[in-house]
Amino acid sequence: MADQDAPKPVNPDNMDLADLRDEIDRLDGEILQLISRRAQCALKVAEVKMKAAPDTAVFYRPEREAQVLTRVMERNIGPLGNEDMARLFREIMSACLALEKPLEVAYLGPEGTFTQQAAVKHFGRWVHSKPMPAIDEVFREVEAGACTYGVVPVENSTEGVVNHTLDSFINSNLRICGEVELRIHHNLMAGPNTQRDKISRVYSHQQSLAQCRKWLDAHMPMAERIAVNSNAEAARRVHGEWNSAAIAGEMAAQLYDLDIIEHKIEDAPDNSTRFLIIGTQDVGVSGDDKTSVVVSMRNEPGALYHLLQPFSDHNVDMTRLETRPSPSGNWTYVFFIDFAGHVEDVNVRQALDEIRKKAVEVKVLGSYPKAVL
Amino acid sequence: MADQDAPKPVNPDNMDLADLRDEIDRLDGEILQLISRRAQCALKVAEVKMKAAPDTAVFYRPEREAQVLTRVMERNIGPLGNEDMARLFREIMSACLALEKPLEVAYLGPEGTFTQQAAVKHFGRWVHSKPMPAIDEVFREVEAGACTYGVVPVENSTEGVVNHTLDSFINSNLRICGEVELRIHHNLMAGPNTQRDKISRVYSHQQSLAQCRKWLDAHMPMAERIAVNSNAEAARRVHGEWNSAAIAGEMAAQLYDLDIIEHKIEDAPDNSTRFLIIGTQDVGVSGDDKTSVVVSMRNEPGALYHLLQPFSDHNVDMTRLETRPSPSGNWTYVFFIDFAGHVEDVNVRQALDEIRKKAVEVKVLGSYPKAVL
């Protein structure tokens, strides 16, 4: 048993098949014991938390998970890739957490979308996930307490739903508790009876068509490009047509029984989509955090420049800014700003204090760990 | 580092939150090292196999995986359940195997069906899975070598496709390499605007309606029961109707945006569906195996009794027998027989030798490990 003996490092190069299998069995026994002990510690953590605050104990701590995964990736020496190893640990954490109480997570459905993939990527397989038909319903489900967290796309290069998510925050008290990034690949797909050289139409969301423009120019210059509402919609249409193709993710090909004619046709190789985890929780400092705020401004000359000044003064690195018309009136604007750092950081606090003096309203949507995986 | 120090067992009962987290971090470091070493051994196993047989090396060994999982469940002391622990090890093995070459697996689609769930349950998340529109196309995909394995339902209490799978074996040289069991729950579901007391129709596959008869008699005695082709089809129909409900699995509710009105309404609590893993591989002895054979018989008086005699004589435990008309002619029958044991077991070999003398043809579909999870 691992408790009695110090583990003996073995050089697998000098072993035959039977020895290697014995070694794997021995390693499995140790891994098993350690995972059991980890689960015991996790239960104990829950118990300590419950004793301290029976009504408000929070078992899932995004900042803590981010730290664990970051450390796993730093310490990993292979041969498994960092992402693979982090995924295994995500599942171990997910299983340990579910011992106490499985997380209930609402996401923008239907099943099989990238948002569901994002939910599983973030929370692991032990999560209970529930598809909702619209973004505001994901918000409502979490506000009502039916689910502890929600997952919504925010910078979605393919479905064009960013504004919907941003606008939902304006009328909601939910916080951002985390973010997930998924690499998105575009594929050209068609029904099984479609011949490649007969394709005269390519359907997709407008942004996906734009993201594959060079490939289409080079390989299908004559095909008409038709923009539709979503990539899933494009795949659905193509399902019944013999002379058309769709650009969409692999999942859409699976859902609509299409064959992928060409993989990864996007012009930019690192096309990715960002999702937010929403909830009611204030997330602590993980050490590598992001903060999102909404700022309402009067439409005055130089307003935006003045707004941004404190960020620069206090060395706060702004990563994104979106402007939206305010729902409250004709002459105000709302800015969604993402920057590096946590509201508990001194420089962030100082910058926000100054911005509060200039703005009509500043609402912190949340500080949360940067996407790890 | 774990290499230098013997692991110190710690009693989590005497620790505060910070200590517990330190302990978890320490455990994670050890788990990480051990998983890395396991992956190294797995790579080495592949290398040894390649050296011995460069062209025919087989990296995935179902009997070996079954043994590993069985041992994990035997050695598990909690607090994680045996199934949870085995699932984590399934993922660890899946990741290690994918290091060498990710498995390509065809399954009866579309995505989101129980068969896909079975494929992931059996092969883990690192598998590449490909949905096929029909059972015989799963067979063809594996025969053509495009996928190494296929997953098809064989005793499906809800979709009624058993015969299709059995018949496919008659004209195929594929073997059975494994089986998967999924517990299937039936749920009553309806659109979000449907009131429970307004439901006047319940759609489902005939077998699912039968499996929920007592519940329906007790709770919806007045609702008309309408049998349709599959449970997914039932859910699809209900999607647009305000006064009807469907009986189907949770995935169907997600796919068609229905709310589950009542979970687990099946009369028998352990309703499960069985899937087969098909491939070209002969699977070795795992120690807890099953064998499937097809036997062709002339239609003579007492034929079936004579056929079965050797099983009883040699203490071979028959677990299932299906009779199908033979495709080759009017007066012959084909029997699909499952029994406990492996073709390499002495008693099994003796029984089969005797059966061969009596039958027109005996074809061994495969010996494979019993479903572990």
From TrEMBL, chains A, B:
Glycoprotein keyword on record: no
Gene Ontology cellular-component terms listed: cytoplasm
Protein name: Bifunctional chorismate mutase/prephenate dehydratase
Keyword set, alphabetical order: Amino-acid biosynthesis, Aromatic amino acid biosynthesis, Cytoplasm, Isomerase, Lyase, Multifunctional enzyme, Phenylalanine biosynthesis
Pfam families: ACT (PF01842), CM_2 (PF01817), PDT (PF00800)
Localization of this protein: Cytoplasm
Ranges for domain ACT: 292-369
TM helices/strands, residue ranges: none
UniProt keyword Isomerase present: yes
Task performed by this protein: Catalyzes the Claisen rearrangement of chorismate to prephenate and the decarboxylation/dehydration of prephenate to phenylpyruvate.
Domain Prephenate dehydratase: residue ranges: 104-280
SMART domains in the cross-refs: CM_2
Catalysed transformations (reactions): chorismate = prephenate; prephenate + H(+) = 3-phenylpyruvate + CO2 + H2O
NCBIfam families linked: CM_P2 (TIGR01807), PRK11898.1 (NF008865)
InterPro entries named among the record's database cross-references: ACT-like_dom_sf (IPR045865), ACT_dom (IPR002912), Chor_mutase/pphenate_deHydtase (IPR008242), Chorismate_II_sf (IPR036263), CM_dom_sf (IPR036979), CM_II_prokaryot (IPR002701), G/b/e-P-prot_chorismate_mutase (IPR010957), Preph_deHydtase (IPR001086)
UniProt lineage: Bacteria, Pseudomonadati, Pseudomonadota, Gammaproteobacteria, Oceanospirillales
EC number of the protein: 4.2.1.51, 5.4.99.5
Example GO BP: L-phenylalanine biosynthetic process
Domain Chorismate mutase: 11-104
GO molecular function (one): chorismate mutase activity
Biological pathway: Metabolic intermediate biosynthesis; prephenate biosynthesis; prephenate from chorismate: step 1/1; Amino-acid biosynthesis; L-phenylalanine biosynthesis; phenylpyruvate from prephenate: step 1/1
Sites marked Essential for prephenate dehydratase activity: T273
